[in-house]
Batch of 2 targets.
Target 1
Amino acid sequence: MSSPSRILLVCLLSLATFLLGAAPPPVQVTLQLKWQHQFQFAGYYAAQAKGYYKEAGLEVNILEAAPGVDVVDEVVTGHAQFGVGSSALLLSRQQGRPVVVLATIFQHSPMVLVARSGAGITSVQDLVGKRLMIERQADELFAYLRKEGVPEQTLTLVEHSFNPDDLIQGKVDCMSAYATDEAFLLDKAHFQYLTFTPRMGGIDFYGDNLFTSDDELKAHPDQVKAFREASLRGWKYAMQNPEEITTLILARYGERRGRAYLLYEAQKMNPLLQPTLVDMGYMYRGRWQHIVDTYAELGLLPKGFDLEGFLYEPEAGVRQINRRLIGAIVMLVGLGLLLGGAALLFFRQYHRLKGALASRDQAERAVQLEQQQKAKLEAQLQQSRKMESLGSLAGGIAHDMNNVLGAILGIASAHEEMEPDGTPARRAFETIIKAAERGGKMVKSLLRFAHQSPAETRAIDLNAILREEVELLQRTTLAQVHLVLDLDPGLQPILGDASALAQALMNLCVNAVDAMPEAGTLTLRTRNQSPEWVEVLVQDTGSGMPPEVLARALEPFFTTKEVGKGTGLGLSMVYSTVKAHHGQLHILSEHGLGTQVSLRFPVCVKEPSGPSPTTADLPGPERRSLRVLLVDDDELVQKSMEAILGSLGHEVHIAPSGEAALAALEAGFAPQVVILDMNMPGLGGRGTLPRLRLLLPQVPVLLSTGRADQSAQDLAGAYPLVTLLPKPFSIKVLKGHLEALGEPGQPNS
Ligand code: ADP
Ligand code: MG
């Protein structure tokens, strides 16, 4: 064939293919939105602009909501083929308007309640009696309020004006809002508010859904399928390219909302759509069932409402397989079974060989894994060693310091009483006492840091601590931080020291706020992680930590903050407190994204044991002189106690060690009270107490210690008539203890 005729042939052929294969003109369809153009509908604009609809053979007319337009009606009557609707689509179907949900875009509804902070509202329960501006469609909010014990009747409901100024100006105390939307205006006005989401109460509705009508689906199943797929493609693109789609919205759909507003919306939509975690459009029957159940509880749907027909099944068409195909499949399966039998024999041999190779492989990998794990364990060990050495250092200092402070406090308080009111000497003693008491508190916090805390242990509600924390933060932190409080109302109590825990949580909050100098969200969350553990999460959307910072974050004195701003002690204190509570600490941090610190504590199984049997339980005392045996190796303590006890009119005998005390008792000395120091060389308090109890079963013992920790409490609790006396103590405390002692009845009295 000559070259020109060949060219002609190619031309003719391409013309023919063009003519034969030319796409039919696009089909016109309408998508009715449920609100004005904004980022909320970004995926549809993207599908339009990127040509996805066109590729699907569709020309789509995207209509925003207008007054008097009901999206469901538009779709059911055929004015529009597709619509965007909330979870309330279920109600429409129940009301005889046959809608079919094609895809869920918002995995979680953005509907929340926002309340002005400082109006005495710290939890959703505080809304009782308040003015709430709420939209009629907010079923999930009504369900949530009801679940939290705030039913409609307890509120003053106000029609929604969709003007956040009403909240800002105090016309209402609380309003329903979109977390993606109104919050922008509130933040911009530097308005302080609290957010309550129904999810806190276990109510989790879907947000925006793409839907069509029964009729449309029946008439044009392929078109529906194509529209759905193109839309989801658009959504994927939009969530990956929010800046580009924002520019597009501004250019094509008007500038009613500025760029910053649209980008804010895009950012807030991320956690609700979860585009990276969940396939775009995914819906789960169980979640719809949960929504049905919630509606049923509200009396809006019958209990047995059937989801059949409501949920679109993209693959439903595949079921219509023809008979011949089935026949062929049966034959193929038969053949497959035969071949499979033969293959099985072969594979057995093959696997034996492969197994041998694999186990060698596995062994190598196991060695590798072990070496990682080893490195990790070593790092952990090093960390706890560091904390331990710091701990024993602090513990040692604290012990000696307590004795020094005890002496000062003792002598000063003994003399204070002797000086008449208002004299300079009296005032000087008062100041000395105050200073010593403050020193005692400092030692206490040092001990807490060294996790040998004299932690008072009582049942604690972590939710209550967090609520207080939030109140503090709201008074002090800057407006840029948005606070979310997500507390499990059924949170189990834990056993611990409330002030130490509050301090630890505050440290975490301060770190979070520091990490969000521009803007961000601080979320405080609690939950029952299992029947044995409760969890507190402190999450921020701040700077996050690069791996090298994360690796060192818990180290005492490690800080990346400028001098004067950071001490580097925050997280190590948190760590100590958590350890002292037999808890666990985990930090997840993603550089540039944020940080999540999780604290886990064992659930308090039984009520904390009441105070150990004390002398206070004994029958009514009369003030009288007591014979006191003081067992303490510290000369300062001996001298000051002698002064104090003397000033109270008691008779003091001093034994500088446990051994000396026992010797005196064996020699016949009969005290009426023993003050026994825990921390002494030799037998020490721990070794002396059981022997002393044998010799003097009835005599009250005050067990004095600078570390009133769990082991000291356990020791005191193990014997009758033993009371813990934490150092340093003031004369009043000692006096109280001694006055509470029982009537004679003791040997030799
Ligand atoms: P400080 O805050 O006084 O520096 P911390 O022990 O509290 O000491 O924290 C140590 C370091 O860990 C901080 O300097 C900071 O670099 C990092 N860090 C702690 N919490 C966060 C957080 N939420 N986000 C980012 N970085 C953090
Ligand atoms: Mg800190």
Target 2
Amino acid sequence: MLAVAVLAAGKGTRMKSALPKVLQPLAGATLVERVLTSANRLKPERRILIVGHQAERVEEQLSGVAGLEFVLQQPQNGTGHAVQQLIPVLSSFDGELLVLNGDVPLLRPETIEALVKEHRDSGADVTLLTARLADPTGYGRVIANNKGRVSGIVEHRDCTEEQRQNNLTNAGIYCFNWSALANVLPNLSADNDQAELYLTDTVAMLPLAMHLEVADPDEVNGINNRSQLAQCEAVLQQRLRLHWMNEGVSFVDPESCTLSENCSFGRDVVIEPQTHLRGSCRIGDECRLGPGSLLTNAKLGQGVTVVHSVINDATVEDDVAIGPFAHLRPSAEIGKGCRIGNFVEVKKSQIGAGSKVNHLSYIGDAQLGTNVNVGAGTITANYDGVRKHLTLIGSNSKTGANSVLVAPVQVGCDVTIGAGSTISKDVGDGALAIARARQFNKEGWVMRSRS
Ligand code: UD1
Ligand code: MG
């Protein structure tokens, strides 16, 4: 039987943030979500999150995680104190307790599995994950012999100068025999620089403590400040890009692009410099994204090009060209073969296949048929100051440059709208609609006014 407890009660003082540390985002997921999911493959019997600082906010963020138990630690008197809160919760539990620090987000599931396996094989009371770090500053130092047996952990701030030379560090990931741990937990004392109860002190109290050293020290990066957050982001981004390169995605300048964990790509996608994908994007085969584009929750079919544009919660079908400098906003649905050009904004609108909105337009709350040509500067005036209204434009219609369609308004199929028209009445199929002041020329006026 296995229980997993994630320590997520701390404030994260060193982050200097209004957000609790474990809710800081990394490549589209919070630190605590990453830590929780890293243990999913073990299928633990119980999953417990220890919350404290801004507990409600943390619980709300994770309310969707099925079967997750929340245990409150109040006040937050150290990692040992946090685990003491489990004594009543796990009173009838008999098995291993896997403790994961909520601020160590790069752990691979395989590594946690290896830790639990090693623990079961050796019969130790605790097995902890360690790493040899080039710069161990800030981490607890693990005192171990060459057979992997651990005699204690000393926090960086409590170390002597000599102990600081030891670069075997504690990752904050432990597999305990719960009953053995529960026996020693009440004996912790706050006799240290921070005057807190340290979980790390239990290691010296248990009869047999062992450690497992990770091969890739990046995995155990703990996040205590913004610089470590940025380092972890860089590691994750590199992992994501490598993963997608192996799946057939090209990056022209990989380091300048960022992805979120929930993006997926078809084959032969090319990502140009300075392009960023966030949320859950689905990108079809042979799309070309960027340079200079930001896509959030975008669904793109095949062969779509996006240049210097922003797409947010929108769907684009095959063979569409977007940009430069276009903005697709929530619920924009762009049909096959459309062209959305320079300085065009589309919101909550369906644009039928083969339609073109090429220059300087705002299309909001509109439904366009197929092969519509929206002239330069056409605007749907969808908002009357109180409510939003719909504009309908039938297939094969053309709007002249600088037309304003005052919604609610319905324009039929095969309509032509004269340039500069303000259309506020419906237009039937096949009609020409012109709504602008008639032009008249005063012959000779200039010469007369000069004399
Ligand atoms: C801890 C370890 C250190 C290890 C490092 C790895 C201790 C005493 N030290 O140090 O040996 O090298 O992690 O990253 O454990 N938390 C609570 N309640 C509290 C205090 C903290 O739930 O009262 C949670 C925090 O939210 C955080 C985790 O425990 O997720 C670790 O706390 P943190 O203060 O970051 O410990 P470190 O100083 O990093
Ligand atoms: Mg930490």
